Amino acid sequence: TKRVFSGIQPTGDLHLGNYIGAMKQFLPLQEQADCFFCIVDLHALTVPRDPEELREKTLELATLYLATGLDPDKITLFIQSQVPGHAEAAWLLQCVARMGELNRMTQFKDKSQGSDSVTAGLFTYPVLQAADILLYQTDVVPVGEDQKQHLELTRDLAERFNRQYGEVFRIPEHQIPKTGARIMGLDNPEKKMSKSAPSEANYITLLEDEKSILKKFKRAVTDSENEIRFDPENKPGVSNLLAIYSEMSGQSVESLVEQYQGKGYGHLKLDTAEAVINRLKPIQERYRELRESGEVEAVLRRGAERAREVSEATLAEMKKAMGLVQF
Ligand code: TYM
């Protein structure tokens, strides 16, 4: 069976981009592969966080993973900081990574721009991500398009390590969805939907209530024409609505475009909102049940145990290959 690994940061609320780009892909994979899903709290520390909030969001994210339908008997769900191998392997890989290649990471450039207090952790962030993936001898990494560059770096580091020290790592592939790879902001369809967007009108969170979802879709930015067609370059707003609608309803973009010929944007907006509400409703119900049940902690404990077992085997091989003495 194939090994799958993916991670999500416990920062802010999870939004439709996270769901469509990443989490929705996880569901079918749990039936076919050995899946490790991680709450990457160490990555969250690369920018200053309120400790209480980080704790809260970490448990919220764990609960959300399960609420989307992931079955703890089929997958391994765990918190990154509870598996010490991640930070350790990240150090070893930092001694393989080069300043130049990290300097080229667009996420680092975006996040560090205009800030005079950029942490060293933000710079080495992609190396920790590579450690996450490589420790599990991962075959497939399901992610949204914005992670593509980090995945390429991961492959480069794995190949360089294997060349320099001998074959230790399997080389992973990314899996990026066809339509929902890059969900755009509702208030600005030129930029991706993001937890750190300045306005709440940018995103729909997975726990958002009906009224608010409806309001945000009604106000979603489109364009001054009235033709409904899928053309992300010239019609980013309308195309984003079609992508969201398609992904949340299971209907193809083509069939939606056909259905909406001659109808106005207002219709499309309302129906997209409804598709989102219908899809999120059972997730929100399950989320509340799980929160009350108190079973999430036990799942995370078991998950961390299994993750430690698997990651320690790879870490030992890395150390051996690099010449570190182990008794
Ligand atoms: P993060 O927490 O920013 O996002 C989690 C997942 O959501 C996807 N995503 C999107 N997909 C489509 N449209 C969007 N607007 C959108 N916004 C976010 C992301 O591509 C991602 O799949 N560095 C990673 C976390 C990470 C990781 C890993 C991922 C750490 N280690 C190992 C995979 C494997 C991140 O910050 O994702």
From TrEMBL:
Homodimer. Pfam families: tRNA-synt_1b. L-tryptophan binds at residue 132. InterPro entries: aa-tRNA-synth_I_CS, aa-tRNA-synth_Ic, Rossmann-like_a/b/a_fold, Trp-tRNA-ligase, Trp-tRNA-ligase_bac-type, Trp-tRNA_synthetase. The lineage of its organism: Bacteria, Bacillati, Bacillota, Bacilli, Bacillales. It catalyses: tRNA(Trp) + L-tryptophan + ATP = L-tryptophyl-tRNA(Trp) + AMP + diphosphate + H(+). Its EC number is 6.1.1.2. Belongs to the class-I aminoacyl-tRNA synthetase family. A motif ('HIGH' region) lies at residues 10-18. PANTHER family: TRYPTOPHAN--TRNA LIGASE, MITOCHONDRIAL (PTHR43766). Catalyzes the attachment of tryptophan to tRNA(Trp). Signal peptide: none annotated. CDD domains: TrpRS_core. Gene3D superfamilies: HUPs, Tyrosyl-Transfer RNA Synthetase. GO terms for cellular component: cytosol. It comes from the Bacteria. It comes from Marinithermofilum abyssi. This is Tryptophan--tRNA ligase. A motif ('KMSKS' region) lies at residues 192-196. It is found in: Cytoplasm. ATP binds at residues 9-11, 17-18, 144-146, 183, 192-196. GO terms for biological process: tryptophanyl-tRNA aminoacylation. Coiled coil: none annotated.
